[in-house]
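Input sequence (226 aa), recorded before submission:
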Amino acid sequence: MSSSKKAICLLSGGLDSSTCLALARRLGFECYALSFDYGQRHKFELEAAARVAAHFGAARHMVTKISLDAFGGSALTADIAVPKSRSADEMGHGIPITYVPARNTIFLSFALAWAEVQESSDIFIGVNALDYSGYPDCRPEYIEAYERMANLATRAGVEGVTRLKIHTPLLRLTKGGIVKLARELEVPFSLTHSCYDPDSEGRPCGECDACLLRRKGFEEAGIEDR
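Predicted structure, token format:
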């Protein structure tokens, strides 16, 4: 497979990123999965990421350790309670405390570096601008701005060797739409992990925003979540 068909796929182990990886594979890309151990409380997601990467035959799965918990400022990286049992209206307004400052900017920067080394012009990220929890770095204008910057910031872009494309196939899908797409792509739901606040054995809490949005998606799609 030529280098032009390589793709860097950001993979958290959740439903959205797993669906992105499955789609990249369906489109014929040789996938290089990239996950982060960033000091998150829900580190069980990394085990899920490894399972999903193996299932879809990623050419490589890299887990990079960065210490975003050194800065804190988020319920995912500091000793701050994860919000529970919020209504859809509450989740649809404001930026929640589970937002990790600059997380997608940092993750995309690592993906950009790996893409340039791999001579890849394609990055996949599972951001969503409809059923999302108010994160500013999941908006289409953010992705567009980052892509413009990326093509100014790399040797490959400046020399015209390649033009980077950030693929966001889930950007305008509802959560139910994502679940339906995942089923079409034969994503094994049981391998994925979405909870922000799992117990010591990795079992989901069922009440955090991530759990509630996942449940909403499966209910909308009329599909059982195994």
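Checked by second reader. The beta strands are 6-10, 30-37, 60-65, 122-124, 165-167.
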